[in-house]
């Protein structure tokens, strides 16, 4: 009677077998998720909202920072000259200041030009027409070089400008931008803190979902343990389930952020139009989308790893 010989596995085939098992585990995990549409949708929605909140705050802060970047192009210092300084002396002073390396541009605003702009934008045309003499002084708008535009250097430059014999006083126009930048820095830290807390929440959500899945498949897991399945073999489908939850939650978060950005664009455009400009909100972009999705996948993997690890340690203890 002849024996039936078992087919032997060659070492070169082991990577293919390992990859095939991973693909099968990934497909089976995804099939199980779609087999429970309501619980899966609820879990994915909660993960998506948890990831979308800090992502939306990040997008908002990034857009505000971009707006302040545009405002930085305005004159940092307005130098008001004495009334007795005539037009020729003001032009000569402007030429001398243009030669300074810390100034990128110097704009001369003569009294007549300032009065015309004030009539156009101030809304006091009637009152200004009643004046016999133009009360506005000559102003030099100083635009610093970007290399010399930090707050400390601007304050030093302001003090130097005030000491000029032609100068009456100077006004720095960037103090409110500095305050806004401080608020933006606080918002960035708050976004990081909120993201960390919500990330821990995602870990708990995924971990609890995987724990319930383990309880539902407890009998199947016990049979695998009896036939000698390794911890990695038992853990694998649950890790893929956590990764699928994180991936779907990350995609849901990017959709929520994109929808929120689009919904706010109309209001932002109307507000920018009131100030004579336009501004288009920037979304997450490709890099931001990848970060959100990868963050969801990592949190899903870590949450499922913790849940399965607790079960395996409990089983070993029993």
Structure description:
Residues 194-310 form the ABC3 transporter permease C-terminal domain. Its main location: membrane. Residues 76-165 form the FtsX extracellular domain. It is a multi-pass membrane protein. One of its GO terms (cellular component) is plasma membrane. Helix 2 packs across helix 9. This protein has helices spanning 14-35, 37-71, 87-98, 111-122, 125-129, 151-162, 175-216, 218-226, 231-274, 285-317, and strands at 77-81, 103-109, 139-144, 167-172. With 318 residues, it is an alpha+beta fold. The protein contains ten helices and four strands, in the order ααβαβααβαβαααα. The two termini are 46 Å apart. It folds into two domains: 22-70 and 188-317, no CATH class; 75-173, Alpha-Beta Plaits, CATH 3.30.70. Helix content is 71%, strand content 8%. Strands 2-3-1-4 form a four-stranded antiparallel sheet. The longest helix has 44 residues, at 231-274. The mean pLDDT is 79.
Q: How many domains in all?
A: 2
User: How far apart, in Å, are the first and last alpha carbons?
Assistant: 46 Å
Choose one word for the global shape. Answer: elongated
- What's the pLDDT, averaged over the residues? 79
Residues in helices, as a percent range: over 70%
| Alpha-beta content class | alpha+beta
Q: N-to-C SSE series? A: HHEHEHHEHEHHHH
What radius of gyration results from the CA coordinates? 33 Å
The number of helical segments is: 10
Contiguous low-pLDDT stretches (5 residues minimum) are none
- Sheet bearing the most strands, described? 4 strands, antiparallel
What portion of the residues fall into strands of 2 or more residues?
Answer: 5-15%
- Largest sheet, spatial ordering of strands: 2-3-1-4
**Count the strands?**
4
Protein name: Cell division protein FtsX
Main location: membrane
GO cellular component, one term: cell division site
Domain FtsX extracellular: 76-165
């Amino acid at each position: 009677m002849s024996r039936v010989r078992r087919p032997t596995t060659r070492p070169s085939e082991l990577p293919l077998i390992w990859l095939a098992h991973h693909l099968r585990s990934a497909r089976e995990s995804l099939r199980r998720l779609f087999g429970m549409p309501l619980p899966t949708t609820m879990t994915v929605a909660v993960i998506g909202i948890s990831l979308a909140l800090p992502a939306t705050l990040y997008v908002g802060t990034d857009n505000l920072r971009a707006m302040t970047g545009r405002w930085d192009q305005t004159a940092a210092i307005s130098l008001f000259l004495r009334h007795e300084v005539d037009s020729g002396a003001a032009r000569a002073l402007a030429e001398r200041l243009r030669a300074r390396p810390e100034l990128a541009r110097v704009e001369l605003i003569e009294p007549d030009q300032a009065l015309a702009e004030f009539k156009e934008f101030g809304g006091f045309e009637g009152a200004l027409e009643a004046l016999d003499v133009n009360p506005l002084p000559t102003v030099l708008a100083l635009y610093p070089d970007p290399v010399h535009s930090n707050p400390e250097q601007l304050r030093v430059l302001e003090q130097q400008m005030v000491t000029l014999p032609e100068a009456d006083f100077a006004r720095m126009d960037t103090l409110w931008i500095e305050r806004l930048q401080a608020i933006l820095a606080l918002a960035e830290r708050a976004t990081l803190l909120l993201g960390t807390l919500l990330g821990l929440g995602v870990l708990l959500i995924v971990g609890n979902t995987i724990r319930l899945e383990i309880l539902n498949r407890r009998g199947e897991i016990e049979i695998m343990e009896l036939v000698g399945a390794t911890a990695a073999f038992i853990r694998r489908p649950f890790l893929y389930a956590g990764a699928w939850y994180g991936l779907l939650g990350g995609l849901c978060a990017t959709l929520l952020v994109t929808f929120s950005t689009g919904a706010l664009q109309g209001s932002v455009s109307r507000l920018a139009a009131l100030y004579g400009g336009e501004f288009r909100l920037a979304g997450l972009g490709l890099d931001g989308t990848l970060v959100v999705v990868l963050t969801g996948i990592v949190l899903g993997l870590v949450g499922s790893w913790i849940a399965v690890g607790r079960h395996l340690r409990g089983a070993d203890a029993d």
